[in-house]
């Protein structure tokens, strides 16, 4: 059974640069739910396992209970604060929105990680670690970088094959956005839904829209810039920029009491 954590406000354990974590932050912000955020260090695995039995972030403590997995968290938030709704009321549209949420989570989430970080790990491991520690109070000592990189690549199955496959899936994800776009400009029906939020949030590490709250500091590596520029003219890429501009809004994060 997950542990409980007594806090007067929802508490989010998050990994700032992560697109899955951005998905949950966006839902909290869109619903204007005051919440506390705690950016865990890269050694978060034991804490995550303690909280949910799985070593992944984000984890939201809601009404004192730990909820892991971005999809489960959004489902809980829909009950906690139904409006503005992320799930369409129409059953057919709701099913379609959830199918697209699952598609982008499963087909894009891990693939995008490999597509961006794989080449960066090879060219400049320290730069890659710098990106991963964006928004964290503690980093990785330089002498530990090779060990961390090897562990990270093994855990997330990042290698030449997954980098190549990941980039193909990133392009397929942008194609899927372009194919699914409705006359309304949204992916499902005529209003913003969990499908739009998920697709846009999952692409944020490569699109890096100005509204993204945890942009890496310092100069971006040339490889990352070149990869972004290769995709920037795609309809799906421009759609992500537009959705962020129209719907990302301000943060609902508050200081811990």
Give a quick set of tags describing it.
Glutathione S-transferase Yfyf (Class Pi), Chain A, domain 2; Glutaredoxin; disordered N terminus; 6% strand; alpha+beta; single chain; 257 residues
Basic shape = globular
Report the radius of gyration as a whole number of Å. 18 Å
The major pleated sheet works out as: 4 strands, mixed
Distance between the termini: 27 Å
Strand content range: 5-15%
Mean model confidence by pLDDT:
92
According to CATH, what is the class of the largest domain?
A: Mainly Alpha
Which residue ranges are poorly predicted, with pLDDT under 50 across at least 5 consecutive positions?
1-5
Q: How many DSSP E strands?
A: 4
What order do the SSEs take from the amino end to the carboxyl end, as H and E? EHEHEEHHHHHHHH
> How many independent structural domains?
2
**Overall SS class:** alpha+beta
Strand order of the largest sheet: 2-1-3-4
CATH domain topology of the largest domain: Glutathione S-transferase Yfyf (Class Pi), Chain A, domain 2
CATH architecture of the largest domain: Up-down Bundle
